[in-house]
Amino acid sequence: MLPEVPEKPLARQLTRNEQKDCLIIERLIRKYFMIVRKNVQDSVPKAIMHFLVNYDNLQSELVRQLYKPDLLEDLLAETVDMAQRRKDTLETMKALNEASLIISEVRETQLW
User: Fold this and answer.
1) Among 86, 84, 104, which residue's Cα sits nearest to residue 94?
2) Collapsed DSSP state (helix, strand, coil) of residue 68
3) Is residue 14 within 8 Å of 22, Cβ to Cβ?
4) What is the spatial distance between Cα 27 and Cα 17, in angstroms, rounded to a whole number?
5) Which helix (H) or strand (E) holds 58?
6) CB-CB contact of 58 with 52 (8 Å)
7) Each residue's pLDDT tens digit, 21-71
8) Boundaries of each GED domain copy (predicted)?
9) E strands, the chain, where?
10) What integer is the mean pLDDT of 77-94?
11) What distance separates the 2 farthest-apart alpha carbons in the chain?
12) What is the structure's pLDDT at 53?
């Protein structure tokens, strides 16, 4: 059977060698975690490339999904906002053409 864990740690001063060892271990652990973090940072883009970008049939699958007959009608439909913008633009063009005609008539008119 294992001995019981004391409630309070024994309070004693660490020797110089123990303090140096603790500092060395702390630095090594920090360096190790920095290496692990760097490896994870490097592996994430590689995993994305492997599973998404380099997927063999990804482009053909996307095109196949895009050209489904039931989706094609929805994708090509004009939105309400775009129809309103087109209508407003046509009205503005009509008004500008009329203004252009009036300006050209005024230029051609002689006052005396």
Assistant:
1) 86
2) coil
3) yes
4) 15
5) helix 58-66
6) yes
7) 999 999 999 999 999 999 999 998 888 877 776 666 777 777 888 888 788
8) 22-111
9) none
10) 94
11) 124
12) 65
DSSP codes, 17-30: HHHHHHHHHHHHHH
5-24 burial, b at 16+ Cβ within 10 Å, e below that, comes to eeeeeeeeeeeeeeeeeeee
Question: What pLDDT is stored for residue 111 in this prediction?
Answer: 63
Helices 58-66 and 69-76: crossing angle in degrees, nearest 10, is: 70
Per cent of the chain over pLDDT 90 is: 45
- DSSP designation for 5: P
Helix (H, G, I), strand (E, B) or coil at 110: coil
Q: How high is the pLDDT of residue 54?
A: 65
Answer whether residue 16 shows pLDDT above 70. yes
Helix, strand or coil for residue 93? Answer: helix
- Separation between Cα atoms, residue 97 and residue 36, nearest integer Å: 68
